[in-house]
Fold these 3 entries.
Entry 1:
Amino acid sequence: MRPDVAQPALFRASAVAADGVPWLAAGFHLRVRLSPLVGFPLHPFAAWRLEHGHDAGEPPIRWRDAAGNSLAVPFDLERVGGFAEGSLFGVSAANPYVWIEVDVDNRGLRLDLLDTAETAGGGAHVIATRRREPFRFGHTGVVRLRASGAGTIGTTRALPRSVLAIEQVIEREPDLTFGLPLAAGYWYAPGPNDPLAAAKERVGLAAPRRLSPPDNPTGALPDDTDPGDETARIMDRIAPELVDPWLARGWSDRDLSPVHATFSDTAPAPGNQPVTASAAVTPSLLTMAVDPQIARYLGLVTAVPFGATRPVERANVWVIASRWAIQRGRAVLRPSGARPLTLDDVLGRRSQLAGRLDGLLHSVFPDARDLLADLPGRPGDRESGPWSSVPLVAVAVAAGDAPPDPPDPFQLTAAEPGAWNPQGEPGRTGGESWRQRISLGARPAPGMVGFARMAPSGPVALHRLEPPPGQGYVTRALPLVPNRASDDSHSRVLEDRAVPAGPAGASWRVWVADEFGQWSGGSDLALPSPDRPAPPPPVVEATFHADPDDGTSGPRVPGTLHLRYAVPDPAHASPGGLPVTELRVSVDGVALPPRPVTPGDTVVLEPAPNPFEVGEQRGVQVVSTYRDAAGTASVPSTTDCAAYDARAPRAIPTSPMLLWTGQRDATGQAELALRWPPRPGAARYRIYLGDARRLAGELGISLADTPVRAAQAKVIHPASANLTAKGAFTFLGEITGTPAGDGFVPFATRIPGGLRGVQLVRVVPLTAGGAEAAFQTCGLVPVAVPSIDRPPPPLLDAVTDPAGGLTLTVRARGLRPEPLAAAPGGAPEYRLRRTRRGLARHFAPVWTSGNLTGPDADGGWTATVTVPAAELIPFVRTVWYAEARYPAEPALPPGTVALPADGGVEPVWSAVGDSSEGLWSEPSLAAESLPIPPADPAPPPAPAVTATADGSIELTLSGLPTAHPTASTPYHLEIYRGTPGTASERRAVVAVLDPDLAWTDPAPIPAGAHYDLVVVDPIGRRGPATRA
């Protein structure tokens, strides 16, 4: 049995045996990787070198070419297309292979150790590479190999983790320990040695012997360094200033663990505004540890000289262990719709030998006992649970005599087009510059990244340099960690934020190191400068000053535009833009002469817009464009400056003729409906109403005491110019000037139907800008509500004379004098209704109308209507009704001649000058007429007599008289039959509805029978008989 090896996602170790590696000191280099979920251990790491004592066996591996075809070893790589991939199968996740070696006849072959997962971009993730013999690797889990180039692939040998005697770690003291440079505290217990001195020893032992690429972008020689200077830089400046504040914050609070601690710092932003930023302590320290020197200081990397341990073997196995403070209930992953995955799920059940390892670590780090005993009493939370400790073990295998090759350089591309920086930006000095984001691709960086601009003004390392030059220490570039792109490309990006402007663009070089500090060769990228942007669209301050009303009515320029431009200087121009040299402006589509300008100028123009109609209000379109020194035009800037013509519309013509409202309705209101042609420039109209008596009082005149209402209008209308006070009128409302479908502007309102006096309407037009026609210049429109007087129902007499026809006499009595006087010279009117079908009197059709004559001595008015006999229909009863009304009220008083005003106000439902017709009286009582011919009916014509085959007799007659369809009774034909010696008897009475008639006397018919035929008219008179 042996202790369980930790999940690599929580705790992983790696090792390399460096001999003759340019970037690394000779010896074994051990590195641990920690998850922020568990953070740093409670005490230093303990490391043991193991003797496994087993020969490597041949693992189950299957090689395939690029097409997926299986390959049997040995095989010539060139003959299968120069590519093959080998996959180990049947390997348990609990017992992975940790070392592998491939026999190769090398003719230019490259062998890559691949991860099980693919990169975010879809490619294989290369863990390590060898380009020379021996082709062997050590790793926590060997699964896939990839061969490319030229050579012969032979036998493969590998070691599974199960053959390693990991249980030896609980039988002896560790070979070495390494950990944080911290004294004893709430969350850390150091080993028996001075932790700071141990950190200095680790840093000095593996201090760089040559300059890194960011510190020597051109690779100039000599490039060697002084390890003592490099150690002093880390220990005396970088660690105290950049690392130790984070350690102090993370490990100083008993109630707050390092994995939960955050560090805050405040720094001035542009404009001297303080900005505070916070970050989690543990992930930040692990990010700093991408620099192997910082990692050595933090106890995450250490080196073991070859002379301090056994000689290098083909597989050099190291076991590294420590103990951590954890909360087993802490969530590691929160899948949607499922229970969170916790640390307890990842760690699993604690094994018995893990307890023995715990005891061994107790003896190695005795100062940790009190800390471990205090853990359960530390504050926790309900979800994550209480604090406890757990020992974790990791295995690192260094392939002897086969350190991994430096990583491949990145394939550089432009992440996006370059962009110019704003000039005059706070904190930015120097001339023009631009910024460029560079994509490193989707392959993750295994370690540090170096970034330098080679041209122009290069080479320049694009890193923060610490400490600054001239402070007594060597100055070196701090490492970079690429950011992830914000899009879906999954690529890593670097950014040069201040590329000096130059005609040839710029070039960059990027390097990448592995986790131990081996640097790749440089990869280069050259890009042209970004395109120069067009000038910004002009910003115009546009105002309008209107000219006063000059009394004209045609089109005119309404005033002056005032255009003000602030020509942008470099601080306000488009970043990278050339100086603005010209301003071009058009107003209402008319181009002005180009105006030369200088950045920072203030340009004022006062152009005139196109002519406006009276009262017109619209936006004057101003289109402005800048041009730069290269002649590039900006996007046109379009501004609509509100302008208006200050002239008021001309008044609407009016006439003194009285206009009439509608009749008073059941609600007691009368509709006032007017219309007029739209006035040029008028956008709205205000309507006022004044009473004739009130206005006469304002004018100081007296109205004649006359029932003729048009006479009142005649007096006031000419004096309308003297009515200047709006207070004498009632404001009826304001309407828009939009014409209706007939081309007129309509206005309708309701006024009291009981008004008997004359009302005067004033229509005042105004423009959209509010310029109103002078109130006193707007004429008056006389209006009145029609009279509701009705005369009493007249009397109607009807006398019928068979020879002379019908005489109808209408007599109207009781007519009031006032309505008669309101229409001097006019006569009352009558109208006659008649019906032959018995319709109600109000619905009987009007037959004729006319004027009544009179008055007679009794004040009565009469009219006589004669209907000639030839126009009467015999035997048809007709019912007659008569109505009367007062004479129509005139629009002008007698003797006055006036014409409607052209283009003036007029009524909607009538015409200017129409009189107001009165209301008809109730219909009279009915009078009836029934014309009857004076003579009896004539004998009927002789019939045609026909004997039929069955013995019947048929009589056929034509030319019989008929009555009108509306007669109450038709003509009848009486048929008698007799024989010699017997009296005639009536055989039939037939209604005569048609002049032609046929009648059949059925058999048997007596011998010698004859027929007598008699016509009977509608009132029963019989004519002479006709015998047949």
Note: The radius of gyration is 60 Å.
Entry 2:
Amino acid sequence: MTELKTDKEFADDSSGQYEQSGIDKFISIILCRGDFAKQKLDAKPVSFFQLFRFATTCDCFMLSVSALLAIFTGIGQPLICLIGGKLTNVFLLTKTFERNDAFWYQAYIYVYLYASVGITMYICAKNASLNITCTMRREYMKSLLRQEAAWFDQQKTGTLTAQLNANIEKIKDGIGDKVGMILRGVTMFLTCVIIGFIYDWRLTLVMFGTGPISAALLSTMARQTEHSSSMQSSIDGRAAAVLEESIMNVKTVAACNAQETMIRRYAATLKACRKFALHAYAFAGFFDGLFFLVLYVFFAVGFYYGAYLYQIRTITNPGFIFAVANLIMFGSYNLGVLSPHLMAVLNARVAAAVIYKIIDRKPSIDSSSTDGMKVNEVTGRIEFQNVKFSYPTSKEHLVLNGLSWTAKPGDIVALVGHSGCGKSTSIGLLTRLYNCNSGAILIDGINICDINIHTLRNIVGVVQQEPLLFSGTIKENIRFGKLDLTDQEIIDACKIANAHDFIDKLCEGYDTMIGAGGIQLSGGQKQRIAIARTIVRNPRILLLDEATSALDAESEVIVQNALKKASVGRTTIIIAHRLSTLRDSNQIIVLDKGQVAEIGTHKELCNKKDGIYASLVKSQQFEEQQKPKSPPVEELPSETFHRSSVRDSHNSSGYGIMSSFTRGSIMSGNVTCVSIPEESTEKSVELNGKKKSKPKGLWQLYTNCHGNYGKIITALLTSILRGMELPLFVLIFDLTFAVFAQAKLESTLERILPIAIIYIALGIACLIVIFAATFAFGWTAECVVDSLRLRAMRSMLYQNAEYFDTPSTSTAVTVTRISVDAPNIKAALDPRMMQILNNIVATFVLVIIAVMFNWPIGLLGSGNLLLLILMLTLIASKMQKLNKCALKEDLTGQLALEIVEQIRTIQLITREEHFHRLYVRKIEDLLYLQKKSSPYEAILFAVTSSFMFFSDMLSYAAGIALIYYGYSSPQEIFTAAWSIATSGWALIMVSGCLNTFVMASPASNSLFRIINTGSGMNDVDEGLRPAIKGDVQFDKIKFSYPTRPQRNVLNGLNLTAYAGQTVAVAGPSGSGKSTVIALLERFYRFNSGQLTLDDNSITKLSLRYLREQIALVGQEPILFSGTILENILLGTTDKTLSDVREACKIANIIDFIETSPKGYDTEVGEHGGQLSGGQKQRIAIARALVRNPKILLLDEATSALDAECERTVQQALDAASSGRTCITVAHRLSSIQHADQIFFVENGKVVEEGTHQELVELDGKYADLIRKQDLSL
């Protein structure tokens, strides 16, 4: 077993020089490995044999059989040249018929032998490669599941999943039939040389240089292209990450009018990638053309020298000259066409290095380790002893700086402090997501580093601020907490978490599918299911990190009571910004700058008038005169506040910045794992106003290459010229035959000289045309596919929100489809298409030549070719159906994305093995479907391998008869038969690209289905652009989400906000608060009623203009990879640095930014991972304020902030609200007490409205919520 490596060892590997030695050098020559040591790649390329590291004994046996059969075919195929040489002697030296029964018999033997050998060889190689890559996928995912959080902090999830999918495909391509092809080609060349030496050693020695020079050319090509290929792969991974974060957070992008910004960013990355791809195409085309020049030069020299030997009678049989020339050309040509196979192996070795780097990485905290103590019982005593910690991405900044505190068994301990003080970091250390730099954390006096990692995480249960659920049913999600739960235990846990009532009202109850990351649930509902999942684990220590932040006040009280019950007998650590949830804690620890600043009970700390905690409490208290005077009411029945059905995922999050949709995105990692049935996708197309249209396959691709038709015409013309090579070669060959057929021996050398010059001229033409054709097709493929990627991205970024609510068109499915389909389409545009076109042209012209020279042979050969075409068509059709089926059923990509996105949750609930088994089942299902196509691919290979024997058998047998009866001359038969044989060879070359080509059509259909989906992208600039004051009015608005049309979320809502007013919307979870904001942003279309902005219907305004006037700040801050400055300026074009500084000053983030080493150029990391939640939120607020909007929408905009920051930012927002309309949604009612008007919404209607004081005096539902949140003693 390979020893795992540490990060340092990997660094050493990648930085050192790689020297070849021994067998490695030999493989480098044969497989054109090139000098990898001089290239700085992402990882040290593995050796050829390391590609088979995961091969089982059975796989090794199949590979050995395949290799032996490949060598056998490589030895056997040159015999056709041997037989051809004998026949040429017959045609040249005699005019009488010789009945050659041996030839007839041998031809039949070779046909049957090659068919059976070819099928066996291909199936063995294909199935072995599928098995090996399946094992690689399994090991890669197993390794990912055991890596520590610190490592993931430095990775991009989009790149990790892209590496898995793309690199595994490269490895599968490089270790399957390609190895057999290489062995066959090399063996064929060596066999041809040996037979040539047997015929005539002098002539063979002259022509032998073709092989070594060809190998040298291919090796040089490999060296020149490997760096470009590696850089292209690396940049393509970055492009995949841009695509993923853009589409997964599409509502955030739309709200910021940042569609074109993200498209430009994606286009820039693709352009950089295209630059290296064109380098690779240029080198490949030049060296491929140079190879043919060398081939024809040696051919010319060979025939000229052969004519000389014939003229001086050293060679008495001219057929030997043709035999040797054909043998060397046949062997060298087969060596030359190995270029794509050699490149496939080269790419596989580079890809394997990247995959193995992940597989072999030894994590500093191994979640799969069996080491450590397995503690059965703990009391729950927790001790932090002088703990110091800094995140690996910011080692110079200590988050915890000598933190020490103790929690007694059974105590409820609260951690309080401003954002970034180390509260959540303490949770991460206690669960060993990270290891502390120094100090120790003890549970019952045992250092947690000495406890088995799974045991520790089973002792400790965590409920996080962002509720992370998985695709599947409610029951399955709760069962992730404990796999052997009974249904009754699940119900009991949900009752404790106050989730049973709303689940029971669903049509499918606990079997309800919750969609991508719980997209069918509101934020509060998701939170309660997450709490239930933790409760069933029955942990001795319960960690609540803002566990009730997504709940409204009433639900929060109920769930808090439930958590109190759940906390009985266990130690509970609570982190909360909403201090009303902490008053019953046994101990409250106030943190500041990574140290304990204050410690005591709620009452003790409140008595410290100048203390930090007392000031935080004061900031969250309502003004005394505004408090409801009636005593607190008893807890209301939960159904009062939970009548809404499953769907206010949009209510609590109807848009990307704080959407269920976004929570089902990159930020939280909830990704749907669904198949992609065409019917479902087409239905969703109809949903968006696009009539279902029949897929047009590749025709649609070729008619959508706008701006690239010049390149396409150039590519077609050069490909046609390239296709004339073989016909010209046959005609020159005919002239060569005529020279040796003439009677005057002394003029042979004189007559062969101009023919030799023509051979060289043909080689020069091949160099020019092949270079031009390869580069033209490569350039076309890169430009067209990049254009389609951008069109697909643009279509999705301008898409209506409802499109992504459908599982078959969810964000994860869409990203996967674009990422997978675009590369598959290249086969219909790149040099593989050139090979298909030029060989089709060659076949057509060669058949015409055959008919012109001898029509019976031409027609016989044409029929034979038509039979081959029919067989190829039938096989290709069957393969396409199987590939289409595999494409539909392939769930591995979406599942891998879900696992990577939710890796922390999976590790915290210790379900690594479960998800690994699930992934293995999915790849085994895919493996079964892929293996079904192997026999058809094998038959295709066998037919093409044996066709030339069958073709020559018929042609020469008929030709001999025609010569015997005097109907044809030997030269006519020779040229016609040679034309048919060469046309068959050309057609076989077409079949070599057929496997990848047949995948291009379904990929094209799939991608164009995304591109052609109706989106309204053309309407964003259409509409009115009036001057906006800021009057907003909802008049009898009714709305239901398209996926649940039977349930109204808003049911006749009336709400008015006048220009300059601050209006607040309060109410229980699922009541429709966030839907109000979603409709204002026009993410959805309401069913009926009127929504106006300054008396203008919102639907008549330009959508882009509308979003320029509105700025949105949501609960979950979504940031994108890049700098702080880029994130703040997202979607804007006219803002200066001074505007940014002013916005940052208001958002209370300027000090943090300007004291950072890189200031505004500080990288925020993927999803803002380098920043704390509060820092991300304040940057999101600055992003909204820099736009200077007329209307400011705040949906729990300060929920991620600590009390101190909330107060400061709230004051800033109050100042920012001056002169603009501000609509606020908040659960924390202290933040809206100064609003000009407050609307209390329940069941989609306004049930109370007025100022804070008026609603307090009304003593209704709003007053009840205030009493539950007030912190006064």
Note: Residues 605 and 611 are 7 Å apart (CA to CA).
Entry 3:
Amino acid sequence: MLKLLSVFCLLSSCCHGYSSCRSCVVPVVCCPVEQLPTITEASPSSLIAFPFDESFPMTCEAKGNPKPEFWWTKNGEEFDPYQDPRLIKEKNSGTFVIPNTGNLTEYQGTYRCYASNKLGTAITEEVEFVVPHVPKFPKEKIDPIEVEEGQPVILECNPPKGIPPLQIYWMTIGLQHIEQDDRVSMGLNGDLFFSNALEKDSHRDYCCFAAFPKIRTIVQKNAMSVIVKSKNSNNDSSSSPGHANSIMERKPSLLMPSGVKSETQLVKGDELLLECIAEGFPTPMIEWLKIDHRLPDRVTIENHGKLLSIDQVDEDDKGKYMCKATNIHGMAVHYFDVSVEEPPQWVSEPESQLSMIGSDVLINCSATGTPQPTIQWMVNGKPIEEVPASNRKEFDDKIVLHKANSTDSAVYQCEASNRHGTLLANANIMIMNLPPMILTDEGLEYSAVEGKVIVMHCKVFSSPPSAVTWNKEDSTGSLEGPRFTVHQNGSLEIYNVEKEDMGQYTCYTKNTEGTSAITALLDVKDPTKIFQAPEDLQVLIGTTAQLSCLAVYDNSFSGDFEIVWEKDDMEIALNHTENSGYFIEDGILQIVNVSHRDQGMYKCVARTPMDQDTASGLLMVLDIPHAPENLVLSEHKGRSVKLKWIPGEDHNSSTTEFIIEYEESQWEPGTWRELQRVPGNHGSAVLKLYGHVNYRFRVSGVNTVGRGRPSEPTERYKTPPAAPDKNPENIKIEGHLPHEMDINWEPLSPIEHNGPGLEYKVSYKRQHVEEDWQEHVVKRHSFVVKDTPTFVPYEIRIQARNNHGWGPEPKVVTGYSGEDFPSAAPDDVAVEVMNNSLVKVSWMRVHKDKLHGHLGGYRISWWRLRSLLDSKKTHGDKHTLTFPGDRNHAMVPGLTPFSEYSLIIMTFNRRGNGPGSHAVNFKTPEGVFRVTDVQKHTVTLTWAPPLEANGVLTGYLLEYQLINDTEEVGVLQTVDISNPDTTMWVLQNLEAISRYKFYLRPCTRVGCGPRVSKESTTTPEARKSHRPSTTVSHMAKFTRSNIGIHTTNCNISEAVNSSNTFHVIEGLELGTVYTVHLMTNNWVDNTSIFEYVIRTRAKVSLASIHGGISTQGWFIGLMCVAALLTLMVLIACFVNRNKGGKYSVKEKEDLHPDLESQGIHDDTFCEYSDNDEKPLKGSQHSLSGQIKAEDSGDSLVDYGDEDIQFNEDGSFIGEYAGRKEKKVSMEVKGTTNQSTA
């Protein structure tokens, strides 16, 4: 057998000049030969009728002898283009052209071309001609969407189906883009998702725009209004710090996709797109995983972490993927089962053959794919079953012709198909006997590229096959060696051509019927080589893309060298560059105003008349399925019908599901609503319907890109009436008055009536008291039961009925009649002072018999009676805190220190407040004198007024002086503070890295009282080093606690083990100020039971600060002076001692505490009381929000007059110090520089 390359010759009985001599080489002259039809050109499998194209060719070209005749089929039926005068036909061709006359719908369908002559018939693959429709949004009225703040919102776009690609934008009417982030984002389906709505999301002009670049069309959906209702809309305190906490926090749940798992099927080479959009508060974060594997390196995470994409998927990408949405309250997950399938691919394509008469012929055809393709055989375009042959046996992947004869000559077709595509191959099978006939011309001259491959032809037509040999004029014997190969078709192939291969070659051929020979000449040239190839590009639509290509070539072809460009294997013609947007110059291709039609593979071809080099670059320009067709309703069964359809073109992205929608003509004509969804591999669905409704249906496909345009609707289908299928839901039982019970329910929607005359039967009875039901039939969706006892349980049921019967047996729900005001107040109200601004209130719960309703919680009201500095009582503003739920204690924060308060508590239910308890009076303790903020040149001091002013307080006397580690002291500076209400002062222009001592005295008209003191060191602006840790010690008296620590830039919150009395906070920055809060989780408010400001110790090198002062001349001179002064002082002291002189011990002790006290300050363990150390609330408002306190500490000895008593915390306590109560203690450990205060 000999593989046929182009033609089959068949000698006729009229041949002349043929020699029968088998021993000599003679020329053979053949009269005209016959040839089986062979398809040479055909249209692609899908042809889209773009509206801007002038015409659409249906191409079918073939060769053969006699010339083939052409005929077509459309949708499986014979179609004659010559019968339609609107079609443009071409002579001697099967091609016809459909002109774009504007109405192309009738030409939509699946076409196939047949090319026939008397020897056989060749066929093309089926060509689907798709006529798209102009996309439009349906005209509809969209009601405003009202939502509580913090709840999720989905704005549906439902873009119309159109020519891909589809681009969706969300903007306002003013064309301002909607900002998207972790909380607000657009899904693959075009919907706009809000994980939690905020007040700022309220707008009346959310618009979805769908852009179709292929047809230069943008359509806009009607504007949508979103109204976000704030939970504090009826509360004047919405601007308070607690406003953000009023939003109900919740764990995440997934808005897209639904359910726990889903399946995704893709074709190999497609793009995988997995999407997870979650709602919750705080806004959830999305994480992607692949079960039992790591995510592929080609994974791209987009859309703020909500979209996983993998381009060009293959078998390795299949498996289970998981998305996980998390926030502090929990998580939600979804599993994706991804499978990758393949369209058919040839394993063994049927080949054309020439065989001897009487031989056995084997025709193989096998293909692979997922799922496994099915093989269909045809002979001359007809199913093989319709062309019987006694000597032929068919198998799935092969055909055997036993003892074949000339009548078995034909065109055999093999078609392999699965749900992802179809392959078609034609094989020309000729059965005959013939002596060798060399079809290649004598004396051909070949040019080869050095280092490449050259093939010199010696095409032989013979049966049985001929033996072919080649030799070179300057060699003996046939050509041998690894570089020379004689192929079965007689051609000589020379690999890695060399200059020495130039010369004359001879081809000899021989079989049992005769011999023949030809000669050929070979010339070797330098190769053409591209040295600057085009690169892969990704460009934005509307911009300019530029591809470069430069090459070197043989000098003999300098006048014939050219560089041409191809797009998707179609040459870009130079005479069309201006109109098409292509500009080519000096090997550079520019594409102006890039559109999606420009996307594709661009090939640079550098060629001479004898060789060429190519290089390619992929241009990617950064759609949705076509509408299903032929919708048919069948199997009518009253309230059930089967809907069938033919899926539309999926645009290389498999349809994952179909959405079936309905529209009814009575209640909401023109409004389409979703009925159900079915998997993308289904073409039908059984629809369960409501009664007494006149339906029509439509179907739209969904793929990974988005939802396609819906199909044309079906004809109307009216269902018979029936009794209701369901009863009302969401039954609510409320009592707005003490002796009434309001029953409300969600009515059945009109489509759920199932027939005319809908009514509701309301039945109720007292629980465990009445046996018989009291029944009422109403048409509205509410009912009021009067004369009921106050707040007693009832059993209620509601059943629907219409003119055709009752609905199903209703469920019984329990509710309570109307509530009344509580009649009792909490007893045993007690107040425990926690610190100078916080108290804990406890009480005895009100008995449930006195509540007369559902317990709402307790309200605490308090007011300030007076300042303890002023004996005159004044009733301050009343404050109230509400604590929902059943509880017997609460914390009241924000009190003014050193004040007397009065407090009452009451319970409440839905009806209102109960009576208040007896008023309880309590007093808050005073504050302290503290250093609260230390900078390089400034120090901030805070204090509280004295407990006993001994007269009218007129102001304060503030004194300070420098006390570095020398015996010398700085000049005592004085500040006169004349405002008695001042509780904070900022000292300016201090020296950096210096220790100061501060004294404060309260003053009256008579004079100033005893002083308190503090010490602190100004900061050097030290650099950060290793992170220290802090240990916080506390009393373990609360069941559940949290420790919080924050700076200006961050916040840290950690749980505290309530069984421990300390907690270590790690990872702190050196030289940084932190505010530590200790709070308990079982308090409704987030008030700290302890708060303190600390600063971690900074490792400061004076030399590094001053730039290596030890090498400076002024420093060396200063050290010399210091040494001289020290020597003089020692001499003076020695003389003074011998004279019995003394120096002031009192002054030195004031400046430097004794070693025992100093040791306490230098130790890293510091214990202090929250009562002592927390600044007064009244002074906090003037402090900077960015506290950077340096280490500060007070001496524990008395620096003032020895006869004046004051506590070590530096406050004006006097005898009151004995009454102070230490509630919480705290210790700070590590590399901090905080001292006991």
Note: The CA atoms of residues 528 and 611 lie 7 Å apart.
